Amino acid sequence: MKALDRTVKVSNKILDGLLTVLFIIFLFIGLYITYDLFYVYNGAASKSARVYKPVRTAQGDQGSGAISLKELSDECMAWVTMDGTAIDYPIMQADNNSKYLKLDPFGNFALAGSIFMDSRNKSDFTDDYTIIYGHHMEGDNMFGALDRYRDEGWFNSHKTGTLITREGVEYTLTAFAVIEVPTSVPEIFNTTFSNNINDRIDYVRKNAMFFEEPSGEKNILALTTCVSATSSGRLIVLVEMTQNEP
Fold it and tell me: What is the spatial distance between Cα 212 and Cα 156, in angstroms, rounded to a whole number?
């Protein structure tokens, strides 16, 4: 009987120890998730990367900005800003379209991921049609800010932006259309989407929520995100890219 009591006591201690270890593990997981959510919703990744944002000087040169993007990462290809919005991020590009879904620009795990360029596009932004992806996050974080373009007034007053490549080439961005599509419409997510620019613009004209005739610039940038965090639909803001003089 005493032997049985000792066995029960030992078993209880082992069980208590296991429960304590599990509690500590779950506590750390909970703390990490809380930290990561804070990191996401307070734009910590964006703010910490912002020191690498290219800066144009009064003389029009890049200063140390172009070098800084290269120092941030070999896979940082540009910096995109849409004026008057929370969109102000480095653009990453890997050899696949899944790497930066859960990695920040420094290569650390983050639920918000990064803003990234389609792996099929040329990294110097010389394609006719370049696709940029970002998660739909609350509080205007990442490409959650694209939601605001569903309002025509916002679209009309927030059309301009800037893209600066890692090599220091600067483009003025001008939004000309907002389109919402299901993921079952593959052509608009294809980097060779209508190699004929007139056909491409005609498709957008017929399907856009808001549309203004573009000036005819050949290079188009598609900023895309989920319609909502739980939706399979996609919201796309299409902008023209006009290269600025050096």
Answer: 10
